[in-house]
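Build the 3D complex.
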Amino acid sequence: MDPKLYARLKAEAASERKTVGEAFNEAVRVWLGTRLAKDEERERNVEVYLRIKQRIRQHPNDYFVIAKGSYLGHFPSLSRAFRILKENRATKALVVHCQPSGEWLGGSLES
Amino acid sequence: MVPLKVKECFESADWGYGIEASILNPLNDQRFPEAGKAIFKVDTGFNGPMMVTNDIFELLCLSDIEVPDDMRPSYKTLAGAVTMRSAPAVLEVDGRQIETDIFTAFTGPTRMLVGFQVLRQLNMGLLRNRVCFLEIARKG
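Done.
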């Protein structure tokens, strides 16, 4: 463990009359809760994606942006797509555009 | 004929040609590597954009923005099709930022490489045992 982080954890735990173990368990619970919330958010985003899927194929060069369970629009460049995500303070999102399949022949597959 | 000047070169290794680059997830400003550049194999046989190993894909938190399962592209190989997880990101190479898709294999082999979709956007040449970035030489 990072010694500085551990020292801070120990100090914070002591200030609340908790052991380091109790503070650690609390931190892990919060972290796991955040991850669970993120998974739920992705599920909501995928539901929106399924609703607008047909439109994505009609605009093969655009990036379709979905975050926080809402469709935020489609944009001609990735930089604009990410700008709108940052404006919405999104931490998880779907940035979807048409991706053709292809070939991977020889080369690095062998090494 | 346009005169070209060599900007920067990288010696090839026994596994082939490689170039230095870094990847940025613009959503959280996570970069790989955090400082400097990493070496990516130049793979003209891969006609996709670029690929990283699963752990680098996770390190960059690209799973937070990866495309849904049914949009995952598939790549034909001599050993069968490889399905790719894919997320948009920015490749920093040759002093430029290139918006591209970053792949990692869903199952099967995965590598650190730059494919043809990215290579065709770069001015580069394979010169004997080196790969070099090129620029148009100014007169005088």
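Chain A is about 55% helix and 15% strand.
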